[in-house]
Write a structure and sequence with these properties.
49% helix; single chain; alpha/beta; Rossmann fold; six-stranded parallel sheet
Length: 220
């Protein structure tokens, strides 16, 4: 019987535990601009898309041109640190379990596609995904268009989707797809922030796998 369900994954914060890297880089900018430094908790309670709005929250006064230049510099700093984080413990087993079930898995990220391919290869998880979809630039804008393009073949065949992410923006993307959503509480937004979505939240890979298995076995 044909599997009519697809799991759609976010990358940063959901699968790779990298929020601390973003804090580290952001504090370099804040320090050089004589602005207050942030903690990981500060970051997780305030991070948002589009990212330029987050910079403004922190006190930066940026034109779009200034932001574009800063983003290029941010990516260069990120590339030097991109392999410091670890894959979230237990997620390799989650990905493997879904793969064995025969369900397709897609990776959709606001990260630039070549960088995304490089990181998924480094962490040894690229083979789990039928499609790896990232942006064609480094500006970290909304990934809604990327998601819709990647999922179009499945949408046409009337598959149902479960979108797994770690931010308010992931919920926005899931909603735009008409997908069910499950948000993990260990990523770039805190549990306090994610509660605003009124979506299912999970705090461990084990509870996430249980949620996914229930989705896959649901006949409705």
């Amino acid at each position: 019987m044909k599997n009519k369900k697809v799991i759609v994954w976010d990358w940063n914060g959901t699968l790779v535990d990298d929020a601390f890297v973003f804090v580290e880089i952001m504090n370099l900018y804040l320090s050089s601009s004589s602005l207050p430094l942030i903690s990981l908790a500060d970051y997780r309670n305030n991070f948002c898309f589009p990212v330029i709005n987050y910079y403004k929250k922190l006190g930066f006064s940026l034109s779009q041109k200034d932001f574009d230049k800063l983003t290029v510099d941010f990516i260069e700093k990120y590339k030097k640190r991109m392999f410091k984080p670890i894959l979230k413990k237990g997620m390799q087993e989650v990905l493997s379990s879904i793969k064995k079930s025969g369900c397709d898995q897609l990776l959709v990220s606001a990260q630039e596609k070549k960088l995304l391919n490089k990181t998924t290869s480094f962490y040894g998880v690229g083979h789990f995904f039928n499609i790896i979809a990232g942006l064609n630039n480094n500006l970290a804008v909304s990934k809604k268009n990327v998601a819709h393009k990647a999922l179009l073949p499945y949408i046409k065949k009337d598959y149902s989707f479960l979108f797994i992410g770690d931010t308010l923006h992931d919920f926005e993307v899931a909603s735009s797809l008409g997908a069910r959503c499950c948000l993990v509480t260990w990523g770039h937004n805190s549990k306090k922030i994610l509660k605003q979505t009124k979506q299912p939240l999970v705090s461990s890979p084990q509870s996430l796998l249980l949620f996914i298995n229930n989705f896959l076995s649901d006949v409705n």
